[in-house]
Amino acid sequence: MNTIYCDVLVIGGGAAGSRAALEAKQASPELDVLVVVDSGYDTGGSTNMIASEALGINAPFNYEGDGDSVDIYEQDTVTTGGGLANPELCRIIAEESSARVQELMDLGLEFTQRDGHIEQQKLSGCTKARSLTCYGSTGRAMTGVMKRKAQALGVQIAENLKITRLHHNEQGVVCGAFGTKNGQAVFVSAKAVVLATGGASAMFSFHVASPTQTGDGWAMAYDAGCQFVNMESFQCGPAVVKPGFTFIIHSHMWRLLPKLTNASGEVFLPRYCKDGVTAETALDLKAMSYPFSVRTDAKYVDIAIFDEIRKGNGTKNGGVYFDVTHVPKDVLLEKAPVTYETLLKAGIDIAVEPLELGIGVQNFNGGILIDKDGFTGVEGLWAAGEITGGVHGSDRPGGNNLTDTQVFGYRAGRAAAAYAATHPRTGEERASEILETEPDEAELAIIRESERLYYQYMTVIRSQEGLEKVLAFIEAQEKTAKSSQLKNRLTVGRLMAQALLARKESRGTHYREDYPATEEAWRRRIVLQKGADGLPVEV
Ligand SMILES: Cc1cc2nc3c(=O)[nH]c(=O)nc-3n(C[C@H](O)[C@H](O)[C@H](O)COP(=O)(O)OP(=O)(O)OC[C@H]3O[C@@H](n4cnc5c(N)ncnc54)[C@H](O)[C@@H]3O)c2cc1C
């Protein structure tokens, strides 16, 4: 087995991992800091995806002069979190976001400007215009400037190395990780580890995130003894299925009152709207609520699209028709230029023909429970970014995820460096015990089936009956699973299914069709951890 030595190991090179590595090195230049990614550094993870018209990062600079402030930002995050976000972390993100975003600008990041100042836009769950953007490539631009600086300082990068397990010493202190590169087993020995592998969207058959997001980080953290919070809270939303690439259309497209039809040509949305909400109102609200959330009446749009598809009323591409041919081309070009041009290049002129939309998994609001410094509670292990939970609750203001990566990537990187600088290397003698197995054809087929089931029963519409089917599948497969890749997906699927089953209400991104109301008694977080028998228990 190849062995690599470092002081601080950062697993993942998206916005969170890039920030953690940079800060670890800046805080303690004498340390060897290594970032490991399972892909190319500039291509892996959600951060590097260009799959929407604009990615926003929040900071209350108040460039638009609408009175935004740290206090208002904090309040928006707490309120949108539906009672499930950690108030201490909400305060920190509000207080430190501007400094972290300013540092990105100091490294050379140029945000979009309008009328001589940086433009800030109001995204869902925000009461003020707070989001800065470099159009669809905000995340890629962020990692670009951080990588350049980190490499100049001496941070090392190992690409195409997929980590599947953490290593710990006899005292249970995390001190490295195992993975594979080109089919070869690799061991990385470290004094401190930061997990920044992002979310797990790619565990679902249709998602808009990167294929690298298969949930390995969560499975590793679960085995290491971490606690998980708000695992039932993750975001799904409409995304293009034809033309055949993943893309989130510009929010303004919903304001153009598209005609949504199923494969039979039925305008189905009015059938799903309840409590006096009209289809027009639901569509209009969708412009300000990209991800599905029961927080707003835009929820009827997502429920309707998802239900039509799952009942077999969708198109053969797994979507419904989204028709704006009644809107003049010049209006489309004015209101959603990138969407129009992107779809045109892909073969569809939306001024003359409908596109097709399905519902994709986008982003996770829950994850590893962390403290204010990204510490996981397991000695030697920190976490940052989408892999963590607590900063966001049952829902989150749009633009907060990228801010989260910077504020808590900064804190986690510095805390891990402080630990590595004062603790010796341990655990090397046990490292040769573990060998990795790649999934064979049969296991790959099981992985595809898990993606289908997870998508069908754990995304927009959830119910006890569906979740029990998922758990039965997991239980059957766990008995024979051999590869870490399959085992990890089963572990994470179980964690999610158990959280979804436990929350017997609907709140934010979590909609139970058998418990549609939001209940005051459920204004509490579900925290899960590996129990004595290896299965998740609520703590
Ligand atoms: C289409 C889309 C639009 C979005 N829009 C917004 C927005 O407007 N505003 C906002 O705030 N957020 C948005 N988000 C969410 C945001 O982009 C992510 O939450 C954020 O980029 C996550 O950053 P991260 O560093 O935590 O994880 P990622 O960027 O996902 O990075 C994970 C890293 O870990 C690596 N990795 C994964 N598994 C392994 C493994 N086993 N071994 C080694 N390396 C591994 C990956 O290769 C990658 O380098 C959007 C997401 C998507 C998909």
Summarize the structure.
With 539 residues, the chain is of the alpha/beta class. It has helices spanning 15-27, 70-80, 87-106, 138-153, 216-224, 252-255, 269-272, 279-286, 299-310, 329-335, 337-345, 400-420, 441-458, 464-478, 484-502; strands spanning 2-5, 8-11, 33-36, 56-58, 113-114, 117-118, 131-133, 156-158, 162-168, 174-181, 184-189, 192-195, 228-229, 234-242, 259-261, 320-323, 355-364, 367-369, 381-383, 388-389, 527-530, 536-538. The site of flavin-adenine dinucleotide has 46 residues, from α1, β4, β9, α5 and β17.
How would you characterize the overall build of this protein?
This protein is of the alpha/beta class. Among the domains are: 236-359, Flavocytochrome C3, Chain A, domain 1, CATH 3.90.700; 438-538, Methane Monooxygenase Hydroxylase, Chain G, domain 1, CATH 1.20.58. 35% of the residues lie in helices and 17% in strands. It contains 15 helices and 22 strands. The strands form six sheets. It has a five-stranded parallel β-sheet with strand order 8-3-2-12-19, covered by helices on one side. The longest helix is centred in the last third of the chain and has 21 residues, at 400-420. The chain is globular, with a radius of gyration of 22 Å. The relative contact order is 0.18. The protein binds flavin-adenine dinucleotide. Flavin-adenine dinucleotide is lined by residues 11-17, 36-39, 44-47, 49, 51-52, 55-57, 139, 162-163, 196-198, 208-210, 212-213, 216-217, 248, 362-363, 385-387, 398-402, 405.
